[in-house]
Amino acid sequence: MFQINENYLQLGESYLFSTIAAKVKKFTASHPDADIIRLGIGDVTLPISPAVTESLHRAVDEMAVKETFRGYGPEQGYTFLREKIAETDFQKRGIGITPGEIFVSDGSKSDTGNIGDILGDDNVVAITDPVYPVYLDTTIMRIGKSNKTILLPCSEENGFLPEIPVQRADVVYLCYPNNPTGTVMTRAELKRWVDWALENESLILFDAAYEAFIRDNEIPRSIYEIENAERCAIEFRSYSKNAGFTGVRCSYTVVPKALKTKTPDGEEVSLNQLWNRRQSTKFNGTAYIIQRAAEAVYSPQGQKEVDEMVSYYMQNASIIRKGLIEKGFTVFGGENAPYVWMKCPEGGNSWDFFDRLLQECHIVGTPGIGFGAEGEGYFRLTAFNSIEKTEEAIQRIKEWTL
Ligand code: MLT
Question: In the chain, where are the structural domains located?
């Protein structure tokens, strides 16, 4: 009989946001008139901006004409986009990332999950707790649950910032601004991780999907703002949240050419070359029209529109923070991130709080336990709904008898 990858049997029954969607569907079926407000999954609600839409239309028209039609594109992404990314997101900020170090993809979820393809199974992988579930689930898919995965607790006591592990870790996933806690790492804190990785010859997988939401100019937006990080870190960036691409699908991953490791035989290996080999074998590139849409994000008009979208969502984050604080909740995040992390009343069970919030206020959030054991007693709300719905949700919470 054929065999399966049994590591899959060690995973929770379903992916966190699928479980939540199923619960909400069940509730809606039995309460068809309930006006549900969704502050659960971090899915955007504003439409893609005019500059992006125009670019998409133009690209579709090009594909419909023999002279400008395009078939397979470069697996790494078109030069027109990789050049814009390198120039705008890095070089203009004084970071020397070049187009050849950028790999355009269809989402950071895919890339943060797939990156394990180029890493050895014997690595000790450190993952924060709570965490965006993709890092942990894809690690389990690859190597199973084992003592090679270590969890770095992030709690109120350490400001939701992981301590550097005392035991050896070969790979660490960091996400800042953080999903789910909405907290950020200062330059000094990030530098400690980079210094640790360089000293220990470890790899940092840095998810910067929420960098656009940073309001404080002192907070690093890229790990490459830290000296020598290009020798120890891969960075993931996404257009999902800043440009409203959750349904459009485009992201990129930076694998610097300076990032090298050695085989047990002492042969030097470039991770840029390995990822290139992986992508060109398993991925045929992001659609041309989608890359043209992403390119439009970098036009002056596109940049202005994206800034407006981000400000809109950050206004929601502030409405949520303020309202919850007024109601007496203990609240974290939401100042440089689109997520607000709140303490459940009396440190209660986060699925119970989810159920009550849904049943009594008709609001969907995300229970902290869904992000890991350390998330128990906490709850996440997102800033991605409309201002009207966000205000309404906060009003309902304020009037709620707990
Ligand atoms: C979240 O809600 O945590 C994110 O939207 C999930 C994702 O980006 O895949």
Answer: 9-47+302-398, 51-299
Predicted local distance difference test score (pLDDT) of residue 147: 94
Q: Which is the closest atom of ligand 1 to the Cα of 246?
A: 8
Q: At the top level of CATH, which class does the domain 51-299 belong to?
A: alpha beta
Q: State the angle between helix axes of 288-297 and 50-63 in degrees (0 to 180), rounded to the nearest 10.
A: 150
Determine if ligand 1 sits within 6 Å of the CB of residue 287: no
CA distances from 328 to 65, 96, 323, 338 (A): 60, 46, 9, 21
Residue 273: what pLDDT?
Answer: 98
Please indicate whether the domains covering 9-47+302-398 and 51-299 agree at the CATH topology level: no
For residue 40, CA distances in Å to 24, 36, 184, 396 come to 10, 11, 20, 16
3-state SS assignment for residue 382: strand
Side chain identity, residue 340: V
Cα of 339 to ligand 1 centre, how many Å?
10
Q: What is the pLDDT of residues 323-382, one digit of tens each?
A: 999 999 999 999 999 999 999 998 789 999 999 999 999 999 999 999 999 999 999 999
Q: Is the pTM of this model over 0.90?
A: yes
Contact 248, 286 (CB under 8 A): no
Cα dist. 317→50, 323, 336, 368 in Å? 24, 10, 9, 18
Mind listing the pLDDT tens digit for each residue in 4-44?
999 999 998 888 999 999 999 999 999 999 999 999 999 99
Which pLDDT score is estimated for 81? 98
243, 52 in Cβ contact below 8 A?
A: yes
Does residue 168 contact residue 147 with C-beta atoms inside 8 Å?
A: no
Angle (CA) 121-122-128 rounded to 5° is 85
Q: Is 332 in the pocket of ligand 1 (CB under 6 A)?
A: no
Listed as ranges, residues in the chain with pLDDT below 70 are none
Which residue type occupies 288? Y
Farthest CA pair distance, the chain = 66
Tell me the CA–centroid distance for residue 79 and ligand 1, in Å: 28
> Ligand 1 centroid vs 29 CA: distance in angstroms?
25
Would you state the pLDDT for residue 18? 92
172 DSSP β-pair partners = 126, 204
Which listed CATH number (3.40.50.1820, 3.90.1150.10, 2.40.160.210, 3.40.50.620) goes with 9-47+302-398? 3.90.1150.10
